[in-house]
């Protein structure tokens, strides 16, 4: 089978099915005409066959994940009652859809991570040699507390945990949304936010290391950072997807590429929100708690990061009917 020729021949009906599904999910199945519902059912059967063929021929996870998403969405629209559709789709998304989108867009996440790490490494290096550089990046109150008192600033959260947790969630969600929205500027806004965050983390890391506070600092960061930092990198991936569609749409018209990548970006953002909410709760109540040993905080962070990695990299394969394979 000529794979490229097959893809070119089959892709129009995949896009047609996706357009019908988008309408059905927004307007409800009753928003489609009788002819469109019949066409939806026909396309569902055809795409199900394409999915089986793609798996048999091992055409790649991105194609398989895309077709699997289409078939499950189609099944939900055609066979499920209106009352059960919403809950089932949300359950499927977090069980299978979000990991599939993350796997499909991993190269963008890797690029976001790379930008962040390069900036952090530069700030780390300069932070050891140039105090004026630290003054530019580290808030004055944090700089003063670390240098003059030899203490971290994280204890200020203790006693106001609910308020702090709420403020942290709001801030993290704002940063994630801004990171995604920065993609509209051709990805430049996204890259700037990732770079700026990397510089700040690197500078603070250098500061605490200089004053022998690295161990308690990273013990504080580890539990919530295990979820918060990956979520920011995924938000960066979403922003870069938008930027890529605007600057390099490829063989698609720019509007079609933006719609396609915008759907992926929206799915990433939908999955990021719970991660940031959980991270905010941990940062408000667990990370700064002086009664919890630092070693336990490191272990909890490692456990959360490992669990997130397994969840995103090893999803359970299911058929469109929900049966385990």
From TrEMBL:
Record's keyword annotation contains Membrane: yes
Keywords: Membrane, Transmembrane, Transmembrane helix
Transmembrane segments: 106-127, 173-194, 201-220, 232-252, 264-286, 298-316
InterPro entries, alphabetized: SpoIIM-like
Protein name listed in UniProt: Tll1058 protein
Source organism per UniProt: Thermosynechococcus vestitus (strain NIES-2133 / IAM M-273 / BP-1)
């Amino acid at each position: 089978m000529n794979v490229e020729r097959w893809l070119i021949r089959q892709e129009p009906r995949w896009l047609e099915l996706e357009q019908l599904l988008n309408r059905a999910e927004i307007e409800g199945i009753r928003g489609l005409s009788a002819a469109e519902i019949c066409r939806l059912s026909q396309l569902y059967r055809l795409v199900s066959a394409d999915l089986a063929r793609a798996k048999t021929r091992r055409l790649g996870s991105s194609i398989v994940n895309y077709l699997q998403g289409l078939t499950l969405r189609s099944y939900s629209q055609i066979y499920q009652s209106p009352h059960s559709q919403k809950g089932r789709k949300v359950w499927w998304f977090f069980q299978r859809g979000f990991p599939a989108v993350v796997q499909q867009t991993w190269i963008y996440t890797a690029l976001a991570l790379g930008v962040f790490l390069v900036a952090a490494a530069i700030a780390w290096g300069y932070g050891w040699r140039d105090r004026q550089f630290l003054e530019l990046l580290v808030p004055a109150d944090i700089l003063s507390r670390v240098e003059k008192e030899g203490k971290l600033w994280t204890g200020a959260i203790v006693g106001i945990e609910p308020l702090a947790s709420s403020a942290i969630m709001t801030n993290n969600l704002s940063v994630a949304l801004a990171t995604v929205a920065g993609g509209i500027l051709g990805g430049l806004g996204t890259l700037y936010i990732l770079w700026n965050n990397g510089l700040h983390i690197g500078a603070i890391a250098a500061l605490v290391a200089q004053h022998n506070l690295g161990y308690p600092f990273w013990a504080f960061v580890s539990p919530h950072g295990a979820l918060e930092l990956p979520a920011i990198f995924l938000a960066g991936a979403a922003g870069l997807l938008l930027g890529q569609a605007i600057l390099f749409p490829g063989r698609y018209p720019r509007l079609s590429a933006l719609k396609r990548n915008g759907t992926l970006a929206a799915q990433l953002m939908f999955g990021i929100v719970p991660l940031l909410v959980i991270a905010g709760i941990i940062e408000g109540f667990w990370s700064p708690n002086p009664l919890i040993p630092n070693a336990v905080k490191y272990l909890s962070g490692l456990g959360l990061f490992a669990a997130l990695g397994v969840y995103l990299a090893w999803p359970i394969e299911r058929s469109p009917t929900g049966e385990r394979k």
